[in-house]
Specification:
With 205 residues, the chain is mostly helical. It is 45% helix and 7% strand. A three-stranded antiparallel beta sheet has the order 1-2-3, with helices on one face. Strand 1 and strand 2 (68-72) form a beta hairpin. The radius of gyration is 19 Å and the shape is globular. It starts with 14 loop residues before the first helix and ends with a strand.
């Protein structure tokens, strides 16, 4: 009889995010914990394509159990109606009024971890890499740099008047993060709880 040994693997659009997920797996973390770690880093190093302001979709199968799916796409605002867009010929692509749904990313992360019976790592560990890159920085990819320049060209001239001071404020906040991780997660948990719960459904084969 031939014995096969399988090694865990994880992939993402950015090496640092993949490394964060792999680190969780090597510590004995679950696939769900690794994915959350990976996704969290992506919101820092790959924000133009992946952020906590979006949605998340999951397909999970735990050993010996049937697979299930999580739809953590945002729900539309209950109070929104056609009058909300009065004066517009179409829904704007930018600005507050362009936000059609509530972000479902955080609630999706939380639900996935809650449903993972084998999850055991603290959230502070799962998100440690994301906090590290947010605080100390990282090498900007060509993709992010190009996207950043494109966004600047779309803004008005006075948008970046306080650009330098904004960086100073962001730097101060990042320095606080390692000491306020628990507070952040309390806020994240509150936000996730206040948001409509993602839909969970069994996968029909």
């Amino acid at each position: 009889m031939t014995l096969h040994r399988y090694k865990p693997a994880i992939t993402s659009p950015h090496r640092l995010a993949s490394d964060a997920g792999a680190s969780i797996l090597h510590e004995g973390g679950t696939a769900v914990e690794a994915v959350v770690a990976c996704a969290a880093v992506l919101t820092v190093v790959y924000p133009h394509m992946n952020s906590i302001g979006g949605d998340s979709f999951w397909l999970i199968q735990q050993k010996g159990k049937k697979p299930f799916a999580i739809d953590a796409s945002g729900r539309s605002a209950a109070a929104a109606n056609i009058n909300f867009f009065e004066g517009y010929s179409s829904i704007p692509a930018r600005g507050g009024i362009s936000s059609l749904t509530n972000a479902g990313t955080l609630s999706g992360w939380k639900l996935a971890v809650d449903l993972d019976e084998d999850a055991k790592l603290p959230l502070s560990r799962i998100l440690s890499a994301a906090f590290e890159y947010a605080k100390n920085g990282f090498n900007v990819s060509k993709s992010l740099f190009t996207s950043f320049l494109s966004e600047i060209s779309k803004q008005s001239d006075d948008t970046f008047t306080d650009f330098e001071s904004s960086f100073e404020i962001s730097s101060s906040l990042c320095c606080l993060l390692p000491h306020k991780i628990r507070l952040f997660f309390e806020f994240a948990s509150f936000f996730a709880a206040a948001s409509p719960m993602p839909l969970v459904a069994p996968v029909i084969s």
